[in-house]
Amino acid sequence: MKTRIYNYLNKPYAVVLIMLIAPLFGFIDRNFSFFFGLGVAFLILRGSKFDWARFGIGQKITVGVVLKSLIITLLLFAAFSSFIDPLIQHWFGEYDLSSVEDIEGNFVGYVVLMLVVWIFAAFGEEFLFRGYYMKALAKLLGNNNKAWILSAFITSLYFGVSHVYQGLSGVISVFLWSFTISLIFNKNRNNLLLLILIHGFYDSIGVTLIYLNKDPVFSEWVQQLF
Q1: Whole-structure pTM over 0.90, yes or no?
Q2: pLDDT at 109
Q3: Are 93 and 167 within 8 A, CB to CB?
């Protein structure tokens, strides 16, 4: 039975069906869509005898990788927080961050959320959306450079829509951010650990600023400039 399930999930079109089915679980709870997809990805991983390279984890974490991830994170955070996000919010309204606002000044809540960020957002989302969805969809579309770019666009749009609870501005911002790091992944398709670190560091900065009640500092600075 396990072999039959693994063989079915290995079909080229299976990723499309999984991506279509997963959002249906969101009618129960929005997190169920993510955990359904993640569960499927882990079934495939287990069936492959834990071939992590299949999901883009083919490189080890080195000092160079960590430093590279920090530099990219800081550049992305500066670009999005100082310019891109303020413009998006000016045109489409404020983000809905009500799901994380309760950590402001709450140290226990902050620590718990940081654990969630690194386990489920950084590792879980990158493993699912880039390691599984993007790679499998690119393979289905022809596994050439055009296929990878198209897959990056589709999965980033899919990832952005999965953040609809943050409002339209959140969807647009997440899509643009996701597409940017997807292009980084396209340059080296075995460097998923780099994306996991970027995702983790980026979200950690955002969560820390919310905890310190300093999250509007960049957007307010830009507004003063204009």
Answers
A1: yes
A2: 94
A3: yes
